[in-house]
Amino acid sequence: MMRLNLDLENCYGIKRLNTQFDFSKSKAYAIYAPNGAMKSSLAKTFQDIADKAPSKDRIFPGRASKRAITDASGADLPGESVLVVRPYDEVLGHSEKTSTLLVNATLRQEYEKLYVEIDAAKDKLLQALKVQSGSKKDLEKEISSAFTSGDDKFQVALTRINQELTTQKDAPFADVRYDTIFDEKVLGFLGTKDFKTAIASYRKEPCRSRILQSQAYDKSQCRYQAGN
């Protein structure tokens, strides 16, 4: 393939992109751009080709998306020829495509061994966290959703909290069971419309002031007493 033509509209935030990559002049292209320049959106679009799935616009799903990625003859780029290697992607795993990335047998063996060791370390960590927390939840998803925008970014979440955990001197809540705090019934109640309405009302200054003024506080003992 000597040339790759891209004609995209409304693909994961890419409003319009019409360009081509000429491989007769170079065997590879590197795309440099600041955050928010739609590099990940372009990668996601190529991933759709590999998955044989349609592309779309997540923010405006009602907009019609166009995806035409063809070779010099106008033929569509086949999904079998696409491999998207995403950063911090723990689900990429070992496959025929990933192995062919490393033609050198020694390097390929080192790569496969490293991936096995990473998976083993991850399983060991999750098992230890499950014992410590006493939780029955999927802790991989819980940690990911707590520190990232999704429940499938476990490696990213660990990277973000690594420094904090390294410098933390103690763990005062280590003996508190996770499921006691994040009880499903409580979380369900907090998500109800009535609760959200009540909280929104309380946050309004006049309402909050009236509630506080109607209560009595024993400041010397730091104890709360209901007012009459």
Short summary:
This protein is of the alpha+beta class and 228 residues long. It folds into three domains: 3-84, no CATH class; 105-167; 183-225, no CATH class. 44% of the residues lie in helices and 13% in strands.
Polypeptide structure, described:
The protein is α+β, with helices and mostly antiparallel strands. It folds into three domains: 3-84, no CATH class; 105-167; 183-225, no CATH class. Helix content is 44%, strand content 13%. It has helices at residues 39-51, 96-100, 105-133, 139-147, 154-167, 178-181, 184-190, 193-203, 205-213; strands at residues 3-11, 14-22, 66-71, 216-218, 223-225. A three-stranded antiparallel β-sheet has the order 2-1-3, with helices on one face. β1 and β2 (14-22) form a beta hairpin. α4 crosses α5. The longest helix is centred in the middle third of the chain and has 29 residues, at 105-133. The radius of gyration is 26 Å and the shape is extended.
